Amino acid sequence: MSNSYVIVGDGIAGxxxxxxxxxxxxxxxxxxxxxxxxxxxxxxxxKEYAKGKLPEAPISIHQEExxxxxxxxxxxNTVVVDIDVENDAIHTHEGETFEYDSLLLAIGGTPQQLPVxxxxxxxxxxxxxxxxxxxxxxxxxDAEKAVxxxxxxxxxxxxxxxxxxxxxxxYLMRGDNWWRYALSEEGAxxxxxxxxxxxxxxxxxxxxxxxEVDDDGHVEAAVDPSGDRYxxxxxxxxxxxxxxxxxxxxxxxxxxxxxxxxxxxxxNVDNVFAAGDITTFNDLVLGEQxxxxxxxxxxxxxxxxxRNMLEYESEAFEWVSSYSITHFDFPFLSFGHPTLGDDSVExxxxxxxxxxxxxxxxxxxxxxxxxxxxxxxxFKQLMREGRDVSGQTELLMEPGFSVDDLAATTxx
Amino acid sequence: xxxxETGRRLRLRRTxxxxxxxRVRHYDELGEEAQILVRELAGxxxxxxxxxxxxxxxxVKFTDYYQVRTR
Lengths: 412, 71
Ligand SMILES: Cc1cc2nc3c(=O)[nH]c(=O)nc-3n(C[C@H](O)[C@H](O)[C@H](O)COP(=O)(O)OP(=O)(O)OC[C@H]3O[C@@H](n4cnc5c(N)ncnc54)[C@H](O)[C@@H]3O)c2cc1C
Prior knowledge:
Mean pLDDT of chain A: 96
Shape of chain A: globular
Radius of gyration of chain B: 11 Å
Number of helices of chain B: 1
Largest sheet of chain A: 5 strands, parallel
Structural class of chain B: alpha+beta
Low-confidence stretches of chain B: none
Oligomer: heterodimer
Number of strands of chain B: 5
CATH architecture of the largest domain in chain A: 3-Layer(bba) Sandwich
Strand content of chain A: 25-35%
Strand content of chain B: 25-35%
Structural class of chain A: alpha/beta
Strand order of the largest sheet of chain B: 2-4-5-1-3
Bound molecules: flavin-adenine dinucleotide
Number of helices of chain A: 9
Radius of gyration of chain A: 22 Å
Largest interface: A-B, 27 and 21 residues
Distance between the termini of chain B: 20 Å
Helix content of chain A: 10-25%
Strand order of the largest sheet of chain A: 3-2-1-7-19
Largest sheet of chain B: 5 strands, mixed
Mean pLDDT of chain B: 91
Order of helices and strands of chain B: EEHEEE
CATH superfamily of the largest domain in chain A: FAD/NAD(P)-binding domain
Shape of chain B: globular
């Protein structure tokens, strides 16, 4: 059995793998390398720091002593630049070589820049790391007007940050509603209204054609494709991630919008595994390859990868992912793959409560809940069980829906 | 995570201030049982049996910040 484990990435996927390896293989040699300057922190709480709602300290999860206490060799500020799968070794930018028996790539993604003029000007922010959050907080505290681009789950964090810091913002979106791939106008309107209440104005059928900068190179406006100009001294751009696959370009590792792994998190090279946002994995729930981009899923993939690094095929990843938005006085939750499917049902179930369920071949593949999250567990259960709900989809829209309602109907 | 059989009950108290030494959890970090509990207790004067995911004194970020209290 292998006993030298190298993990690239100390986000939640890499760190949970390190924890699992240490628990289940007390004598293993474990090395964790990260290009960040700090060890594992809570990436899903850094928005709260930028909003000014949380101090820095509670965001840290593993202090450096954790690695000493658990006999894990942590290397901060270490960029892995090359993987030599023939010789089981990785090379760092700093010129070091680490040999492994088994390697885990938990390297996530990097926010995309808009492909427009001045996209990297001062005052234009992308959001992934704690360092980004510190810069965003500082910049937004001095700002009066902001522009936000990217009508998805990360864009709305910028909207909430501007709202919390009393910055008047224009949220430029393509199409006529926020996250149009998962929500209809009716559901999205609840989100728009919550943004407006916080001084963030959604602007539809818009986007950014270019940014304008002042003499110091600081952003001063965004101009949309129809020529409308929006003054700003802060811009938040969240249009998607580039997965960090550059690292494996010259290797035989299979890449398809991420690193391809099986349900055991193993790549096409026997002793190389991957976990977290970086993976394109065999989704046993969906029955096809998929990607997840959520904390819970990345953590679980890290744990599952570690178990399979210790003993291949010991545990499969079978998980329904979810991602909530907790910025407003009502909750929002997306689960599974709400942008997939060949059919959907949606309904307003009460004032301020809306839900949509995406279906494929009569089975639930994902959805969105606004206001009332109570059916979350039932919908996830339907997904895990692969239940065919054809002909009964209206039941899913009942306010107090439970899986038993469906079973009763099925048996009729 | 399974319910602890301590006989203790848990409630969530809304709070606006988070001390620097607090343990703060986001809703998305919690297991399914703890999530159900947070949904049911947040903003309501109710209690429920303790769950393994949430300890006395923990803070939870849901639609507000809530502090876990067990008795
Ligand atoms: C602002 C923000 C808010 C979010 N909110 C939520 C939320 O509310 N709920 C939710 O479920 N999810 C949320 N997410 C998504 C969630 O945080 C991610 O899905 C999860 O953290 C992914 O974990 P990971 O370990 O796979 O990747 P990451 O956390 O990205 O970790 C990858 C690590 O690898 C390092 N790395 C990459 N390449 C190299 C290299 N060559 N050498 C060395 N190190 C390298 C990176 O620097 C990084 O530290 C949010 C994300 C962000 C940015």
